[in-house]
Specification:
It is a single chain. By secondary structure, the protein is α/β, with parallel strands linked by helices. The protein has helices at about 5-25, 25-35, 40-50, 60-75, 80-95, 95-105, 105-125, 130-145, 200-215, 225-235, 250-270, 270-285, 290-310, 320-335, 340-355, 355-360, 375-385, 390-405, 415-425, 435-450, 460-470, 475-480, 485-500, 505-520, 575-590, and strands at about 150-155, 165-170, 175-180, 220, 525-530, 540-545, 550-560, 595-600. It has a four-stranded mixed beta sheet with strand order 1-2-3-4, sandwiched between helices. It has a four-stranded mixed beta sheet with strand order 5-6-7-8, sandwiched between helices.
Amino acid sequence: MTVCRTLEQLQGVIDQRLAVWCERQDVIAMSAAFGRCGKALCNSLWALAVLAGGGVPASPAASALAPALVREAVRRREEFQTEELRQLWQAQHELGGEVAEALARSPDLLAAMEAAVSAKRATGSTTSSTQEQVAEALQRLLQKGRLPIVSVRMEVVVEGVLGRVDIVADWSDGRRVAIEVDGPDHFLTHRKDDPSAVIGSTALRNRQLRRAFGEGGLLCVPYWECSSQIQSRSSQAGSPSPAPPVEAPPPEQQLQGVIDQRLAVWCERQDVIAMSAAFGRCGKLESAHASGPAATAAARAGIIAALAPALLPLVPRIRQPAGCSLPLWALAKAGAAIDGRVESELAPALLQRLPPPALLDAGAAAAMQRGKAQECANTLWALAVLQLRNAGLEAAVCGRLGELLQREPESLVAQALCNSLWALAVLAGGGVPASPAASALAPALVREAVRRREEFQTEELRQLWQAQHELGGEVAEALARSPDLLAAMEAAVSAKRATGSTTSSTQEQVAEALQRLLQKGRLPIVSVRMEVVVEGVLGRVDIVADWSDGRRVAIEVDGPDHFLTHRKDDPSAVIGSTALRNRQLRRAFGEGGLLCVPYWE
């Protein structure tokens, strides 16, 4: 889309191009137009919020402008994206008065602002090595009894503060001190080495922290002082070698502890934002501890079992795409590890809320206009895994992803990029024609994948391999123009085939039964082979039976993790990865060449 610096310029572009967009069903361009509308408005309100604390009284013009801006924001409350909602939240807290009163008269906008802030707090930020050094130095002083502190916590969520606090030190007298370790990007470059010369967003953060922690409750450590302060404090403590850091409990235990403490309060307040954020943290759980992936999967299932009954009756209160996409993502990651009526009812209920039916009926051009790249990718991936089709929703998510890919390609991390391509590959065989937005999205995604070909892990390369074989056309052509990436994809697939998978006892029983029938001449088969590598199929085939007439039949023995828990005992109700595997097998073995044996048979 043409760069538009004012709303007047944007209106001119829309007047010229809207008929063409409608004719082409170009939801990507429409979504981009929606995204341009709210930026200038929210930037102006945020600037007034920053300047309000600069020590200089606001001018009469500024005092009159803020209420006028916020009234316009309330009128156009459907237009804002996540970052703009966070700017409104900051303006509400900094400017107060008429600004806060006007926002309070729009519950939908308030809920959207809170959801955007909760999402930022839930994801946190990358912990720097300097931040970790400061925290470790404090831990050593704590262990030596050289400071009257009882605990040191990192990445702490504090009420009234937009992001997470780098470090919070709890003192023995009950006080708390916030410690922010500020890198070069927090300071004005023309006033180097002046701790007070911070940029506007950092000044705003500091005001929030002083309100939350009180006078003397904030310590900002500029990057140029970190090394000397750490060395000084360590030498004063008489510690020639650092003490080993205190090992934190696994993240699944931390999350379970938060839920145990807060779930009753969330239910009482009907706080769907906090519940959705907890689902998001649950989806992110990965096994980084000795407990291993099995323990992490069990912990994830237990957390979902606690959260799902609480969220299910409150689903109608969810107003934001993230409120639906985060629980859907967690449910999809848990797969068949979860079981139970409430969990199986939650996914369809969430999908009915994402996006609102009225927007879908209107064409879904703005259905996900506030969704971030990760939220859209999560939703698309969950739709594919759960095998839930909604043409309007798919078009909306694909349109939003396409717009973000054009405008902010780096906002789509490598994993989300490959997850989205894999999801389109799964959905391409679901019997529902692809939307124009999905058809446009796949080539755009693969071009971005080729550009960033050095970033992918083994599993992501396998997803690209599957997209190449399922989507073909422009996707396959774009990948063919990158020999290095093609070679990496083939190597990842070859590695999976070489390692194979664990043979289950059920699989062995089926193979033994076929062998007995072969030996007794009861079936016209000449051999039975297990764990067979077949061209065009990602993994190994459980069993291949070679028939006397030259035909081959693939036999897959499918355990519980291949099926959707809310459609129990339905052999066709398989998850997305199994549906994709079955398509690969039918292509390789021909019509009638695949037999799937579900575990209950």
